[in-house]
Amino acid sequence: MSDAGMAVKERIGGAAAFALGELKPRGKWLTPFNIVSIPVILLGAVLIVVRFAGGLGSVTSLSQDFPWGLWIGLDVNVGVAFAGGAFVLTFMVYILRMEKYQSLVRVTILNSFLAYVFYAGALLFDLGRPWNALNPIIGNSFGVSSILFLVSWHFLLYMIAELIEFSPAIAEWLGLRRIRRILSGMTLAAVVFGITLSTLHQSGLGALFLIAKGKIHPLWYTEFIPILFFVSSIYAGLSMVIFEGTISHRVFNHLIDPDHRESHPALMTGLARICAGCLFIYFSLQALLFIHERRWMYIGDGMWYWYLIEIIGFVFIPWFLFMQGLKQRSLAFIRIAAILSLIGIILNRLNVTIVAFRWYAPVRYVPSWMEIVITLAIVFAEIWIFRWFVFRMSVLSRPPQWAVEQDKRLHARQ
């Protein structure tokens, strides 16, 4: 064999050895999370096969009256809102030049990208005919003026933009210096493009429900639902950053750069201030809509008390706790407020899509245990992939020195 052939063979062998080495799990196997998640993922995989073999009716409680259930309400509407931290943080860092939040960008973008990939993939489970998944993208049957057409394109393009934003970390992992320099130069354009797309589809998801007037209870239906979805996605995304940051600093503490570890409380306080402002705006909008749309006529209605729990318990109280946390400089208050805010988003999105949808129907939709297991399997699988990235790439840790120097030269040119 020639020298060139030997060199190629050695490169292929080295690449194969590297890939196999990176696929090996790192860390302890017998952890509480692994013990719980592995059986759920395996059972979820079996149920997914059953779903595609036997159709939606084999695993779900969906019907013609309730075509959207847990997978749309939780996986898509809630998941996309939780992923809103990426477009907010990138706007703060790259557009407003709030450089102190730079250490949070990569982990937030990774979490958001994985959320979009997994939840967009979960849409295939919800389609009775998955092979028609391209119809909204190409405008077939729906038309290019359909909101679903716009949201589909926003999802697709935003995932590509987020992949470009995160790609420098992949290039660092592979040691591709020249490619990493090119990808870093594309980051700002991808960020601007991604912020525009995310702003549109966060509100676009709410606009999908504008055609359901008369089917959604008046306490939740409003012509301003796109604005409510957008505003709530801001504090939902940042609350997720606070919640995720708290967990990451405990689970991946040994990977975090010491400087970033020390600045963590100050960063969480800054995000809490934004969350408090957005919660106040959201609560004010709900109060204005309550007066403008004369919702007081529903006081005493069965759904009224449930609406009150959502607005007071998971909007007003989190706002109050955020304010107390800022006043007393208490991370405990801030973390509790973030968790309550996330629960409030879950409650709101499920109310719009399930609880308050056709509330008058004699037979209501209740998700089957199989739908719940598949949803949990998707979430657990996403966490496994997220953990794989964190252990291997500079997501929470400092990038290699050569990458830092590349960024300094890029900033100097800008």
Describe the structure concisely.
With 414 residues, the protein is an all-alpha fold. The chain has helices spanning 3-23, 32-54, 70-82, 85-95, 102-126, 135-138, 147-174, 177-207, 225-251, 258-292, 302-328, 331-355, 369-392, 401-413.
- Unreliable residue stretches: none
Q: Got a strand count?
A: 0
* Class per helix and strand makeup: mainly alpha
CATH topology: Formate dehydrogenase/DMSO reductase fold
Q: Mean of residue pLDDT?
A: 89
**H and E order:** HHHHHHHHHHHHHH
Say which CATH homologous superfamily is assigned.
Formate dehydrogenase/DMSO reductase domain
- Overall structural domain count: 1
Report the portion of residues in β strands: under 5%
> Do you know the CATH architecture?
Up-down Bundle
CATH class: Mainly Alpha
* Residue share in helix: over 70%
Oligomer: single chain
Number of helices: 14
Description:
Helix content is 74%, strand content 0%. The mean pLDDT is 89. It has 414 residues and is mainly alpha-helical. The protein has a single domain, classed as Formate dehydrogenase/DMSO reductase domain (Formate dehydrogenase/DMSO reductase fold, Up-down Bundle), CATH 1.20.1630.10. It is built from 14 helices and no strands.
Key terms for this structure?
single chain; 414 residues; mainly alpha; Formate dehydrogenase/DMSO reductase fold; 14 helices; 0% strand
Summarize the helices and strands and which ones pair or pack.
Elements: H1 3-23, H2 32-54, H3 70-82, H4 85-95, H5 102-126, H6 135-138, H7 147-174, H8 177-207, H9 225-251, H10 258-292, H11 302-328, H12 331-355, H13 369-392, H14 401-413
Helix pairs in contact: 2-13, 3-5, 3-12, 4-5, 4-8, 4-9, 5-7, 5-13, 7-8, 8-9, 8-14, 9-10, 9-12, 10-11, 11-12
